[in-house]
Amino acid sequence: KERTFIAVKPDGVQRGLISDIIARFERRGYKLVGLKLLVPSKALANEHYADLSKKPFFAGLVDYMTNGKAPVIGMVWEGPAVIKQGRVMLGATDPTAAGPGTIRGDYCLTIGRNICHGSDSAESAEKEIGLWFGGKGEI
Ligand code: ATP
């Protein structure tokens, strides 16, 4: 069964959007198989965003995710095409390009505060689920 990692980032938690985001996935018919509230460690955030380590915004992004001003919700959702459809439901990474009806298209305008994260491939889903949920056994 296909699984993906979806996170509500600190801005989404701070703005009270956890329940809305969960509701959208539940209503679609996807199954919630893992959920945790945490302030990620620097090591976790560095590894999660390892592909972006050369980008100028990397340090700010990791600090934002880990500074503890608000926690992160990490979730694993399961169901048909959930990796691709999860990204569709989130909307474009840059919220100014995100369509109405998507989470980002409905709630934000700034790429650095785009509320949520979703795995972009089967490989990243497997890596991210292992990273955030401790790998095999836990879920
Ligand atoms: P995500 O992994 O969060 O779903 P993505 O895979 O679509 O997003 P990436 O290019 O991997 O997009 O960027 C990861 C995250 O880095 C973005 O969601 C955003 O929070 C942050 N980010 C990307 N570009 C910028 C930027 N120019 N300035 C600030 N933050 C950025």
UniProtKB/TrEMBL annotation:
This is Nucleoside diphosphate kinase. ATP binds at residues 9, 57, 87, 93, 104, 114. Its EC number is 2.7.4.6. The active site is at residue 117. The chain holds residues 83 to 221 of 236 of the full protein. Its cofactor is Mg(2+). The keyword Kinase applies. Keywords: Kinase, Transferase. Residues 1-139 form the Nucleoside diphosphate kinase-like domain. Belongs to the NDK family. GO terms for molecular function: nucleoside diphosphate kinase activity. It is an enzyme of class 2 (transferase). It comes from Coemansia aciculifera. The keyword Kinase applies. One of its GO terms (biological process) is CTP biosynthetic process.
